[in-house]
Amino acid sequence: xxxxxxxxxxxxxxxxxxxxxxxxxxxxxxxxxxxxxxxxxxxxxxxxxxxxxxxxxxxxxxxxxxxxxxxxxxxxxxxxxxxxxxxxxxxxxxxxxxxxxxxxxxxxxxxxxxxxxxxxxxxxxxxxxxxxxxxxxxxxxxxxxxxxxxxxxxxxxxxxxxxxxxxxxxxxxxxxxxxxxxxxxxxxxxxxxxxxxxxxxxxxxxxxxxxxxxxxxxxxxxxxxxxxxxxxxxxxxxxxxxxxxxxxxxxxxxxxxxxxxxxxxxxxxxxxxxxxxxxxxxxxxxxxxxxxxxxxxxxxxxxxxxxxxxxxxxxxxxxxxxxxxxxxxxxxxxxxxxxxxxxxxxxxxxxxxxxxxxxxxxxxxxxxxxxxxxxxxxxxxxxxxxxxxxxxxxxxxxxxxxxxxxxxxxxxxxxxxxxxxxxxxxxxxxxxxxxxxxxxxxxx
Length: 444
Ligand SMILES: Nc1ncnc2c1ncn2[C@@H]1O[C@H](COP(=O)(O)OP(=O)(O)OP(=O)(O)O)[C@@H](O)[C@H]1O
Ligand SMILES: [Mg+2]
Description:
Blueprint: H1 6-33, H2 42-57, H3 65-78, E1 80-86, E2 91-94, E3 101-111, E4 114-124, H4 128-168, H5 182-238, H6 245-277, E5 285-288, H7 289-306, E6 310-316, E7 321-324, H8 326-343, E8 349-357, E9 360-366, H9 374-379, H10 388-392, H11 401-411, E10 415-420, E11 426-433, H12 437-442
Parallel strand pairs: 6-8
Antiparallel strand pairs: 1-2, 1-4, 3-4, 5-7, 8-9, 9-11, 10-11
Helix pairs in contact: 1-4, 2-3, 4-5, 5-6, 6-11, 7-8, 8-11
Bound molecules: adenosine-5'-triphosphate and magnesium ion.
Magnesium ion binds near residues 335, 339 and 401.
């Protein structure tokens, strides 16, 4: 839509306010005088002369009704009025009074040296009606400008203020009318963008709030389960239910296992919160991602060996240099390998890859377990989500591993995705941007 600046609008309004009275004045004058000239025209002067001559030449007929009738016709044609008085100042003849007529000529008629009468001629006063018309034009101009201002300026501003009040009550259903005034249209567009962004951030906040509430409920639940078990066994010990030393040892072992479970849960929650809170405070240095993977495999190998699982390093490219925090990265990859070991049946295989692609360091962890179900694929990265199998296991984790890994990888500017390999088994794929030359020189 074409818009005009407020300065231009004001200038046009002023011009219009000056122009309208003039148009009305000129039109009224023209309607009245049939001419655009404001001073007496030659034909008007001629008419006047003709009338004076007619009256002077017929002084003996002044009282004759036939002549008066003829004069009346003449005067109507000329748009004039006349009063004829006798020498004793008595009215002999007078046209009916007309509004807006003014006396333009008055003279005495003399015959043989004697004053026989006095004549006054009235012509239309071409000022009054045009002035009234001009004033009307001025009022109409003010009305039109007022209406235009209301529609173009006041209404949109009122809508903006209404919108702002609605926003303060978290009502984002704000519809603003467009304006042909550039400045107001700009404010309106800015306001519209602000409403859209506020709406988005409000929705995000609601979602975050939901997630936080869910997390707290889930954490409370997960802390309560081992705590209940712990209390039960400790009560049992206190009440002397475990009489034999073997039974006592079993009770203590369960208590230790439960406290270890609690310890792990709290530790994982702490890592997750830390990953969220200190997002920008990574302890970054130049790291070879293949070395991190190797270190992680080294840590998990004993666990894999217990189940006779092979961890194979395939397509391992060295010098996948990235800028990152080696401790956090190792934690991220440990979680993936830990899952792979847990979900791979005995004598299975875990294949780990690491390679470069354009400006990314890519790694994959594939196992020979049963892979992710559709529901798990959708929710695996949700904090505290556990698949059915993991949930039913008494020693199952808290469902934080993948959430932590994804957050750590994202903190490094990359991402982590979960899927299934076409030949079966879960396939986790992650990427992190390779260090830039400038970073390599600076060593971070
Ligand atoms: N390699 C895998 N194969 C099949 N399913 C998996 C695999 N890795 C993860 N999952 C599924 O994804 C869910 C979430 O994994 P995640 O690592 O976040 O939690 P967890 O392993 O259950 O607990 P935690 O890692 O906190 O000890 C798991 O419960 C499991 O159902
Ligand atoms: Mg896990």
